[in-house]
Amino acid sequence: MKDLIETIVSALVDYPDDIQVMSREEDDRILYTLSVHKEDMGKIIGKQGRVAKAIRSVVYAAGSSQHKKIYLEISE
């Protein structure tokens, strides 16, 4: 799942080397935290959060085969 997130985001940003995806697994969910370069934050969020919502939709669909809820958090 980390590879999927990195692949999607690297096509959108100017600084692909600064992409960091961390995961934390709990009992009933998996939380992925995405961190990008400060200047790329607007490209990841998009107008009115549309790009972030689209990324989350793809990640949630790809993780639907797992028996845990998947969350994607975008941090600065």
From TrEMBL:
<dbReference type="GO" id="GO:0009252">
    <property type="term" value="P:peptidoglycan biosynthetic process"/>
</dbReference>
<dbReference type="GO" id="GO:0005737">
    <property type="term" value="C:cytoplasm"/>
</dbReference>
<protein>
    <recommendedName>
        <fullName>RNA-binding protein KhpA</fullName>
    </recommendedName>
</protein>
<keyword id="KW-0143">Chaperone</keyword>
<dbReference type="GO" id="GO:0003723">
    <property type="term" value="F:RNA binding"/>
</dbReference>
<dbReference type="InterPro" id="IPR020627">
    <property type="entry name" value="KhpA"/>
</dbReference>
<dbReference type="Pfam" id="PF13083">
    <property type="entry name" value="KH_KhpA-B"/>
</dbReference>
<keyword id="KW-0694">RNA-binding</keyword>
<comment type="function">
    <text>A probable RNA chaperone. Forms a complex with KhpB which binds to cellular RNA and controls its expression. Plays a role in peptidoglycan (PG) homeostasis and cell length regulation.</text>
</comment>
<keyword id="KW-0963">Cytoplasm</keyword>
<dbReference type="GO" id="GO:0071555">
    <property type="term" value="P:cell wall organization"/>
</dbReference>
<comment type="similarity">
    <text>Belongs to the KhpA RNA-binding protein family.</text>
</comment>
<keyword id="KW-0961">Cell wall biogenesis/degradation</keyword>
<dbReference type="GO" id="GO:0008360">
    <property type="term" value="P:regulation of cell shape"/>
</dbReference>
<dbReference type="InterPro" id="IPR009019">
    <property type="entry name" value="KH_sf_prok-type"/>
</dbReference>
<comment type="subunit">
    <text>Forms a complex with KhpB.</text>
</comment>
<keyword id="KW-0133">Cell shape</keyword>
<dbReference type="InterPro" id="IPR015946">
    <property type="entry name" value="KH_dom-like_a/b"/>
</dbReference>
